[in-house]
Amino acid sequence: MAIPTRRLPLTALRTFEAAARHLSFKHAAEELLVSATTVSNQIRQLEKDWGCKLFHRHTRAVDLTDAGRSLAKVLSRAFEDIRAEVELHSGASRRTVTIAVGPIFGSRWLGPRLSKLAKEHPNIELIVHHGGRITSAAQMTTDIAVDWGMGDWKKLEATKLMDVCYSPIVSPQLLEQGGMLSQPSDLVNWPIIHQHDRSEWRNWFAQAGCPNLQPESEVVIVDSNMVQRAVKDGQGVALGVFPLMDGDVEKGQLAKPFAIDLAPSRAFYLLTRNEARKRKELRIVCEWIEEQARQFMQS
Question: Which pLDDT band holds residue 59 (cuts at 50, 70, 90)?
């Protein structure tokens, strides 16, 4: 039979949680500003009412029983959730979460959704930082990060947000002026823009059936925003990241001349430190981003 809420001994449960956390009646009493005798009496009353032992009592120490450990785990999580919820909605406390994202993900996906997050969770302030590649937990300088990889980050929790694919993009103006572009081999006569290195174009050419193609004009640009700006300015053809650039193609700002997509082995992942989601506001932001990504990929 369920115990009515009004009969739950909330004060005693709070006392037990403190004693279980400290493994000391004395330290629990100091935290709660009561006597050690009060702590002991409240816990003995819980044990009597429930018919089970919560602590093994020794001369100068106490240990949790199996029942005590189970109850302590549930209570610790419950009291932390209550504390975080109160802080989240407190008028005197607006909770801050920091996130690091790369330029493509930040400008193409997260940026347009920030106002929605602010509207749905006005008590959370999201601070967005420019993010570089992360190879270890030591490189996490923010609460959350979105990075590009295989999902194998050590000592970090990684949740896949979305898969992407690459396909050539070009400005409509350059497409009108640049001559024939009816098949991939025609790209030999077009200025090719590489991002960071030549590997992605090399792989796309191979998939498109022209692995040995050597474009007459090539340039390598490291910054992804500069790559997209150069394409829109009509300086060449680059590999676009889809579906993040579907909107630009639909609006006519970019053209996608081929229906040949290269699926890389990597994807965008949401990264947090282990157990970081115990913070209520951080968990809210993570779950919100994950749900937005799920809806985006299904649309």
Answer: confident
CB-facing half-sphere around the CA of 39: CA atoms within 13 A: 25
In order of 106, 141, 144, 155, 272, the CA distances from 138 in angstroms are 22, 8, 13, 9, 12
- Can you give the pTM of this predicted structure? 0.66
What is the share, in percent, of the chain residues with pLDDT greater than 90?
58
Q: How many residues does the chain have?
A: 299
Q: For 262-272, write each residue's pLDDT tens digit.
A: 998 889 999 99
Indicate the average pLDDT of the chain. 89
State pLDDT tens for residues 97-123: 999 998 889 988 999 999 999 999 998
* CA 192/CA 204 separation, integer angstroms: 12
13 within 8 A of 43, measured Cβ to Cβ: no
**What CATH fold (topology level) applies to the domain 165-250?**
D-Maltodextrin-Binding Protein; domain 2 (3.40.190)
Q: Rounded CA gap, 125 and 131, in Å?
A: 18
Domain extents in the chain = 5-89, 95-162+266-298, 165-250
Compute the C-alpha angle 126/146/207, nearest 5°.
145
Q: Tell me, which fold does domain 95-162+266-298 have in CATH?
A: D-Maltodextrin-Binding Protein; domain 2 (3.40.190)
Q: Do domains 95-162+266-298 and 165-250 have the same CATH topology?
A: yes
CATH code 1.10.10.10 for 5-89: yes
Average pLDDT over residues 11-15: 91
